[in-house]
């Protein structure tokens, strides 16, 4: 298996000279990653094999090396683009203009803008903000959240594991929910957190290796679905600065029961159907539900006497919907044009 991977990596290296533009680079990346017959077969075999750990390590080895080779080539292409004689002359002409414009008032980044709204909303409801661990252990990222050992999310192709096999980069901010439920033994808890999470995913217009997430939960003797629906609906109205239609659909998550997928009525087309909502009139926005009996037991709570609700939301997704942003990568490029004009598409 390793020899076959090394053969493919050698073939990729030999083809690097043929990549002379970022467009060609994207095509080669797709060929060796998302459209790779070899990689897709390995992922398919992983579901059926008993030796998941060994095969997962081969997949990880393949992904790390392909990404490293391609990223180095991309840096080389970008360096050539910006270091040509013509670009240097153009830059010299623009330096005075850049210096003058730098004195202009800046603008709040869209992710920061959404996070400010979230913080204000939960602070007004007397929720306590919690700073979270980005390097986590399986106990809080998976075990206490009732995510079984054989769950796909725990495989190496979905999660970044560190050299210490028990440590990983958290895959969701729900690890904070698990930590607080386990370490704070009071029966009335109201916590929220925002922060970066990591997934072993492709970088494209709608996916990223890392993104920001909001997670919140409330625990008490009287928490109900009605309390949860009100709290979440009002949060979404604050974020989108308008009254919106909210739809709760039954779903499944290991740590909530009942679980809900939450959709909002598309305000780009008034639910008539458009490219944003894929002609459905609704936009899927988050997963949520009532904390499951099993999670409450695993975290040492009196599961027969108390109940709670929880939700996890991608902050980039909220910003993309509110401001009409189509490519998640725009948030991380430090493109001044984007930062100055991102809210032009706001509805």
UniProtKB/TrEMBL annotation:
Highest taxon in the source lineage: Bacteria
Keyword ATP-binding listed: yes
Any one Gene Ontology BP term: phenylalanyl-tRNA aminoacylation
A GO CC term attached to the entry: cytoplasm
CDD domains attached to this UniProt entry: PheRS_alpha_core (cd00496)
Enzyme Commission number(s) from the entry: 6.1.1.20
Keyword Aminoacyl-tRNA synthetase set for record: yes
Record-linked Pfam families: Phe_tRNA-synt_N, tRNA-synt_2d
Keywords: Aminoacyl-tRNA synthetase, ATP-binding, Cytoplasm, Ligase, Magnesium, Metal-binding, Nucleotide-binding, Protein biosynthesis
Gene Ontology molecular functions: ATP binding; metal ion binding; phenylalanine-tRNA ligase activity; tRNA binding
InterPro entries registered for this protein in UniProt: aa-tRNA-synth_II (IPR006195), aa-tRNA-synth_II/BPL/LPL (IPR045864), Phe-tRNA-synth_IIc_asu (IPR004529), Phe-tRNA_ligase_II_N (IPR004188), Phenylalanyl-tRNA_Synthase (IPR002319), tRNA-bd_arm (IPR010978)
The reaction(s) this protein catalyses: tRNA(Phe) + L-phenylalanine + ATP = L-phenylalanyl-tRNA(Phe) + AMP + diphosphate + H(+)
Domain Aminoacyl-transfer RNA synthetases class-II family profile: 189-321
Compartments, record wording: Cytoplasm
Name under which the protein is recorded: phenylalanine--tRNA ligase
Lineage start: Bacteria, Bacillati, Mycoplasmatota, Mollicutes, Candidatus Hepatoplasmataceae
């Amino acid at each position: 298996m390793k020899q076959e991977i090394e053969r493919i990596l050698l073939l990729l290296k030999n083809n690097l000279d043929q990549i002379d533009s970022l467009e060609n680079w994207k095509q080669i990346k797709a060929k060796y990653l998302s459209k790779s017959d070899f990689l897709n077969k390995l992922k398919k075999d992983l579901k059926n094999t008993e030796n998941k750990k060994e095969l997962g390590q081969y997949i990880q080895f393949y992904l790390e090396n392909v990404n490293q080779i391609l990223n180095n080539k991309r840096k080389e292409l970008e360096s050539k683009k910006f270091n040509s004689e013509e670009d240097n002359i153009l830059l010299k002409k623009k330096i005075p203009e850049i210096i003058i414009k730098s004195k202009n008032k800046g603008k709040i980044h869209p992710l920061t803008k959404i996070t400010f709204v979230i913080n204000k909303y939960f602070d007004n409801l007397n929720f306590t903000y919690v700073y979270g661990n980005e390097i986590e252990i399986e106990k809080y990222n998976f075990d206490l959240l009732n995510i079984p050992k054989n769950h796909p999310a725990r495989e190496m192709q979905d999660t970044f594991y560190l050299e210490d096999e028990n440590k990983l980069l958290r895959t969701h901010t729900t690890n904070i929910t698990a930590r607080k439920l386990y370490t704070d033994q009071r029966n009335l808890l109201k916590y929220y957190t925002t922060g970066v999470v990591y997934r072993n995913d492709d970088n494209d217009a709608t996916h990223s290796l890392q993104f920001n997430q909001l997670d919140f939960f409330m625990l008490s003797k009287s928490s109900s679905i009605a309390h949860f629906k009100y709290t979440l609906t009002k949060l979404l109205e604050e974020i989108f600065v308008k009254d919106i239609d909210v739809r709760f659909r039954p779903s499944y998550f290991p740590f909530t029961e009942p679980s809900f997928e939450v959709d909002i009525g598309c305000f780009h087309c008034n639910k008539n159907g458009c490219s944003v909502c894929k002609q459905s009139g609704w936009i899927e926005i988050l997963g949520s539900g009532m904390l499951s009996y099993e999670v409450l037991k695993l975290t040492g709570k009196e599961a027969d006497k108390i109940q709670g609700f929880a939700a996890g939301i991608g902050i980039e997704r909220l910003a993309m919907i509110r401001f009409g942003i189509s490519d998640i990568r725009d948030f991380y490029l430090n493109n001044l044009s984007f930062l100055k004009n991102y809210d032009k598409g706001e509805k």
